[in-house]
Amino acid sequence: MNEKRFGILLTDYRMPDMNGDELTVLVRSRYPEIFIIGFSIEAKEQAFLDAGANIFINKERLAHRLLPILYAVPGKA
Question: Which domains occur in the chain, in start order?
Answer without folding.
Answer: 8-72 (3.40.50.2300)
